[in-house]
Amino acid sequence: MTVRRNSLLRFALVSGLVVIALTTSLSSLAMGALRYSVVDQEARQVAAQIQQLMLQSFTPDDLERGLGENTRAALDALSADQQNANILRLLLWNRRGVLLYSNDHKGDGQKATPSDGLRAAFSGSMAVLPLAPERLRPFSPETIYLSVEGYLEYLMFQSSQVWIRPGPPTVSAQTTRPLVAQAASLGVARLFVPVRFTETATPAGAYEVVYDFRPLQQKLARLQKAVWTTIPGGFLALYCAMLVVVQRTSRVLTKQREDLRAAHLGTFHALANAVDARDSETGDHSVRVAAYVVSIAQDFGLSAEQIAELKIAAELHDIGKIGVPDSVLMKPGPLTPAEWDLMRHHAVVGSSILQSTPLSAAVKDAVRHVHEHWDGGGYPDQLKGEQIPLFARIIAVVDAFEAMTSKRPYRSALSRPRAMAELQHKRNSQFDPQVVDSFCRVGVGGPDQPPS
């Protein structure tokens, strides 16, 4: 049960980390794609509005002496158009820094020192500045590293502290998108657009457009909230459903494995009982050994699962004797060398019988090595010391004690004190001294009945 629980916990932890990584990656990618799409849409709108401005025709006299009434009326109509609701203020400057037009008609005719944005526009580039200079920020990594042009823009920003979009005078979504991407984080920004008499002429003036990007910010914020709620929520639901399915499947498989294990144990117990019935008068040798080992296992601090495995190994430790003939197993006199070889082979036979079963390796090893000696003189593999599995060392002591105190066809039962003395005598040769000491310490050899 603990192994299954640990496996489920490991699976839950690993799959949880994978889900977190996938959620973070997909949410970031989805948000990046949506942001690109929304900013691109906004850039198209800004490009269309700028193109409307650039379609206005001016004469040199307009930009030197002031705009005529018809031109002012056209710009007023453009500012009042609901499609241009994001334009908060529209200003037109000439190269001498004179404000020729503002849609709120404040400051018209006044002269001011051109700002960095105006100077960039007078040089033939579009530029963007925050409404407040302290909100000026460098380019994002997206703008800097995705293209050579982006890196050049970054270098220009470093030198002039103004976002500039250099290049041909053609206005399009592609040319305005980098500016919109930067201005989107400002809330309200100032866009600067050069005014030319012809496409190749030196700019004679510049528009300054105070543009409201706050709706774009709000839209991006809503999208970000939706993405980082929907995708993680979906993955969380999928993760929980997967855990439920895995847990249920694990329970079914565990139940099937336990049923199969119980069926095998039932068969093996029947075989072990048959061996005990042939080898002892009471027919419960293996059961008594299994009962004795519990106290020693508890004294060694073994877990409940380990104790359960040890009991199974104790109950099946002599199962290989099923292949030993009665003439050898119940012989009243000493065994011949050939008969001893046959008797010793039962440990290997028992291990082979259990090899393809769903029992643990600890049980199979204990059955194979229960007759190994602490000094290496046992069989079948001549293991010594702690090379011998602990289960086998415990069963060996208890098996010997129970055999010595039980009546056999070839000898009478020894008294408990004499059997204990024999264990002490062989505590460093045949038996693990710590197991013998534990056997004496828990008082297993004292009572008439083994502990339950």
Written account of the structure:
This protein is of the alpha+beta class. It has 2 domains: 2-224, PAS domain (Beta-Lactamase, 2-Layer Sandwich); 280-441, Hypothetical protein af1432 (Orthogonal Bundle), CATH 1.10.3210. It is built from 17 helices and 6 strands. It has helices at residues 2-54, 60-65, 69-80, 116-122, 141-145, 148-160, 173-183, 214-279, 285-299, 304-316, 326-329, 337-344, 346-354, 361-369, 390-404, 416-425, 433-441; strands spanning 87-94, 99-102, 126-130, 163-165, 188-195, 205-212. Strands 2-1-6-5-3-4 form a 6-stranded antiparallel β-sheet. The chain starts with a helix and ends in an 11-residue tail after the last helix. The model is unreliable at 133-153, 155-169 and 445-452 (pLDDT under 50).
Q: How many beta strands in the DSSP annotation?
A: 6
Nearest-angstrom radius of gyration?
A: 46 Å
Secondary structure tally, helices: 17
Count the domains.
2
- Return the average pLDDT rounded to an integer: 78
- From the 3D structure, determine the CATH topology of the largest domain: Beta-Lactamase
The CATH homologous superfamily of the largest domain corresponds to PAS domain
Strand order of the largest sheet: 2-1-6-5-3-4
Order of helices and strands: HHHEEHEHHEHEEHHHHHHHHHH
Strand-helix topology:
Elements: H1 2-54, H2 60-65, H3 69-80, E1 87-94, E2 99-102, H4 116-122, E3 126-130, H5 141-145, H6 148-160, E4 163-165, H7 173-183, E5 188-195, E6 205-212, H8 214-279, H9 285-299, H10 304-316, H11 326-329, H12 337-344, H13 346-354, H14 361-369, H15 390-404, H16 416-425, H17 433-441
Antiparallel strand pairs: 1-2, 1-6, 3-4, 3-5, 5-6
Helix pairs in contact: 1-7, 1-8, 9-10, 9-15, 10-14, 13-14, 14-15, 15-16
